[in-house]
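Here is one such protein, fold included:

. . .
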Amino acid sequence: MAAFQTTPWRLICGILAVICLVLMAVSGILLKNLLSKQRIRPTSSPGNMEPQEGSECCSCQENWIGYQCNCYFISNERKTWAESRDFCVSQNSSLLQLQNKDELSFSNHIKFFYWIGLSYNEEQGLWQWEDGSALSPDLFSFSQLVNTRYCIIYSTSGSFMGEACQRENRYVCKKQLI
């Protein structure tokens, strides 16, 4: 009778062992897929920031952050506005042109001000982005306090101010992928 009772237990143990092996194999496959997707994601830029939602469609070069199908370079070094613009151009990008106030929400823990691609065009009498497009009035509301001879520095908290273009500041480059 003892031999008869061990047979069902052996069968149950065998079934549980097979289930355990299948679960381990599935876990291994899922973990492998997860790790390979993380390798495809761009490396973080200075400041150890991680890409956020919407970064799956980009593959950015080292030290650039992928976010919502764009690549961003957030500098730690300081340059004048013109030097910053030239650096961005050398990277096939441009100084940041904001599409909306929340565009840099993935980097809201940064406390510095950065050059962006916004400056005053005296000939046309308006604030323009590097690509020549006019500043949308609902993006920023500039008052008369901003000197039109200045370039604009921007904080990820949404603050902006005018700064002499010859001053050195950190900067943000943006490369649109789509």
Notes: Residues 37-55 have pLDDT under 50 and may be disordered.
